[in-house]
Input
Amino acid sequence: MRKLPRVLVVEDEPSIAELIAVNLRHNGFSPTVVYDGSAAQREVDAVLPDLILLDWMLPGESGASLARQWRKNDRTKSVPIIMLTARSDESDKIQGLDAGADDYITKPFSTQEMLARIRALMRRRAPETIKDSVQVGELTLDAGTYRVSYRSQELKIGPTEFKLLHYLMKHAERVHSRSTLLDKVWGDHVFIEERTVDVHVKRLRESLCDASCMVETVRGAGYRLTVQGKPVMAA
Ligand code: CA
Output
């Protein structure tokens, strides 16, 4: 029998945490609820979850700070994170994504929306969709081992940036619009704004270090991965 996907719920409001857990349980997930950052870290150290639902405002360490740490750590860097936030301000959403979250949900949210986003993120991470390896110039991506390297040096990269890079590398030298990228990389993009693509492209460039110029912005059109990239101008 297939193991149920483990979802770690980090939420300090017991009524919300319980509501989330009940809905996850009824929909084929195995949730674990913790109420603060240190308990979350202990849980992650004990068992690596398949996905983390992370509240932004927690007592003690903030959700954003936890997300940043998990992204830096080799063991946890590829665990999908959905940020739960009471803030609907655009800049706060972008901050959440910048901290390393793959998606965010604004409170109050419907359980249907939450489940749809969890499923979309898990589909994106599904191993059967990414098995091959690709090379463009000196940049190599091996989807089987989940590794990206440039000039034989391994690069750290988050799950969404990995999928984005994989798509751009498979279709190198072509320009892709934001909506095409949402469709091909995010798949189920009903809840995602085009601006999200820009945030992940920015993070992708940061992850690529010396190869960052391979990801080109084509004004008014979208993005392109190219061997002969020009240095990215500061915005
Ligand atoms: Ca909270």
